[in-house]
Design goal:
The chain is mainly α. Helix content is 67%, strand content 7%. The protein has 5 helices and 2 strands.
């Protein structure tokens, strides 16, 4: 299930890159200061190239990590309650959950970057080249989700079952 979500999020990212390629002006805002105003620009071609390479690298990283988790020595996996999860009878489930979690993190990250791309397109096509107020909300939402999800992983997902 998590893998399908990652694929959908990756396709959304590809669509956002395509959207940017169609509507970005020749001068694209790529970096913004704390006042949300653009402070660094690039050509449309460079912006597209950066977005494509970033997307490909992230997809390769998440897919590679999900595959790697089934092959690396179990001692290299860092997990809460290792005395339970690293027992031979639980290793397969640990590896399956870890791969799912990597795909989940990848999907959430790709969706965050979809938002970043949409906001960058919006800023580059606006008169003042300024990010909307949605930018800090997107960032805080992403970071807050990651913190909450990490806590859930620690306290719930990897908690050994009660016997």
């Amino acid at each position: 299930m998590q893998r399908k979500g990652f694929v959908v999020a990756t396709l959304c990212y590809a669509a956002a890159v395509g959207y940017g390629a169609l509507v970005w002006p020749e001068r694209v805002a790529l970096h913004f200061g704390t006042d949300l105003r653009a402070d660094s620009y690039s050509s449309r071609g460079t912006a597209i190239l950066v977005a494509v390479v970033l997307g490909l690298c992230l997809v390769a990283m998440f897919v590679g990590l999900a595959a790697l988790v089934s092959r690396i020595p179990i001692d290299l996996l860092n997990v809460p309650h290792p005395s339970y999860w690293k027992q031979p009878e639980h290793v397969a489930e640990l590896r399956r959950r870890s791969a799912e979690d990597i795909y989940h993190l990848g999907a959430v990250t790709m969706l965050f970057l979809v938002g970043v791309l949409v906001l960058a397109v919006q800023a580059s096509t606006s008169a003042d080249h300024r990010l909307s107020g949605a930018a800090p909300v997107l960032l805080v939402g992403y970071l807050g989700y990651l913190i909450g999800w990490t806590i859930w992983l620690w306290l719930r997902r990897y908690r050994p079952p009660a016997h």
